[in-house]
Amino acid sequence: MPTTVEIAPMRELLSADWAALDELCAPLTEEQWATPTCLPGWTVQDVLAHVIGTELMLEGVPAPQVDVSHLPHLRNDIARMGEVWVEDLRPLSGPEVLERFREVAARRAAALDAMSQEDFDAPSWTPVGKDETYGRFMRIRHYDTYLHEHDIRDALGVPDRLDVAAIEAALPEVDAALGYIVGRKAALPDGSVVRFDLTGPVVRTYVVVVDGRAQVVEDPDLEPTVTLAMSDLVFLRLTGGRTEPGPHLGADLEIAGDQSLGLHLASNMAM
After folding, report:
1. How far is C-alpha 221 from the chain's CA centre?
2. For the chain, what percent of residues have pLDDT higher than 90?
3. What residues have CB less than 8 Å from 42, skipping those under 6 apart?
4. What global pTM score does this model have?
């Protein structure tokens, strides 16, 4: 069933995402712009260029005709489609890319301001399927932009932006994939009961039962085979393929119950 997303909060979240990226990138030095991130082949400048490219696509701007066949980090057609925007902007300096970002963010904010709730509820293609709404696409944009902001923060050693509203709006894009993560990515055996405890700033519990297929259940009292307790940002990073569990174990990631199963799951959460 298509997802309904309230327009006013999502407009505010996207505007806050764009403002946070602007504030984060405005003081960067040439060396910082060139800092590698956790995303293969991408520097800080490339991450911002990727955000620009997606927003330009949403504006209906045709993709640039750029050859990306020489780039070894591209492993599939989706990656190649996204890379053309990044490659097109690579000759620019960091401040020039930031100025391009400011221009497209201002236009996109104006476009969202002109939209109604009916526009948000209209059918739309999205990265997760055709039969969705434009509002769902914008929620995906928030999820993606918030993660990319933290790709930059991680690369530069800048503290997280622990905005509760931003995290709460990003988490549903992971919620929908938990059955796939547990049952397909990690392929946990039948009979497994997995509990995810998010420890903050957004506190949340998910229970996933594997019984023929893996699905989230509304029964937090089930005895878990394994429990993974972690901060919500570690949860977003693991499911977003941004990190491995090792650096977080004993700090902001704890495994209770079947340790080997828990470590296997934590190592295969990228969706």
Report:
1. 30
2. 86
3. 36, 50, 73, 86, 151
4. 0.95
